[in-house]
Amino acid sequence: MEASSWDALRKQARRLEAQLDDQMIAYRKLVSMKSDGSENDIEADIERSLKQLQQVNSQMQTWVSSGGSEVLSHTLTRHMEILQDLTQEFYRLRSSLRVKQQHASLLDLRDFDRAKFDVEEAGESEALLREQAAIGRNSGQVDTVISQAQATLGALMSQRSTFGGITTKISNVSSRIPTINHVLASIRRKKSMDTIILSLVASVCAFLMFIYWLSK
Fold it and tell me: How far apart are CA 118 and CA 110, in angstroms?
């Protein structure tokens, strides 16, 4: 950027400094608020203005070096100090904004992980409840089978007692009535069959009670 006089260079420097002041005010406000993505545009504008001001200061320095007075040298020094302050302030604010964005990103990630954990935990709890319900249903079915088996066992034992009494009476009568020996033999075969059935039912009951004990 070229200028025809010192006054024109100073005018450009003051305009850029005022422009940077306004941009920095907007940028400070943005840093204090939640990021919405607009910071990239403001940062680009500030960097462009800082670069332009640096170019103007370089031209003013060339003007002073070519034989400017001490007053012009002091004026240039003041403009260079303003540029330095604005640059440092911009870098400080940008660094603060980056830290703030990283912190917000970590919080979002933590919230996401927490939500994911809650969903997984809820799924595990639901699966556990389903498994407990299934065990409860199976236990109820085992209880029903055992009850039926016990009832059958009781009936068979009652029949065995009845047949035992009948057999005893028939044995007493058999010595007097030989013709009932055939009937007695049939009853004994029936008794043997009932004994086998009773043994099988007892074994099944014992097995079911063992399974029920394991499922508790």
Answer: 12
Which range, 12-21, 37-46, 158-167, is most confident? 12-21
CA-based diameter of the chain, in Å? Answer: 161
26-40 mean pLDDT: 80
Question: Which residues, other chains included, contact 73 with Cβ-Cβ below 8 Å and sequence gap of 6+?
Answer: 64
| pLDDT, tens only, 174-209 | 555 555 566 656 666 766 777 788 778 778 777 777
The CB-based long-range contact list for 30-36 (8 Å cut-off, 24+ gap) reads 30/97, 31/93, 31/96, 31/97, 31/100, 34/104, 35/97, 35/100, 35/101, 35/104
Q: What are phi and psi of 34, to 5 degrees?
A: -75, 135
Indicate the pTM of the whole model.
0.45
Give the C-alpha separation, 59 to 197, whole Å.
117
SS3 58: helix
> By the 8 A CB rule, do 52 and 16 touch?
yes
The pLDDT value given to residue 50: 96
The CA-atom distances, in angstroms, between 122 and each of 112, 128, 136, 206, 208 are: 15, 10, 21, 40, 35
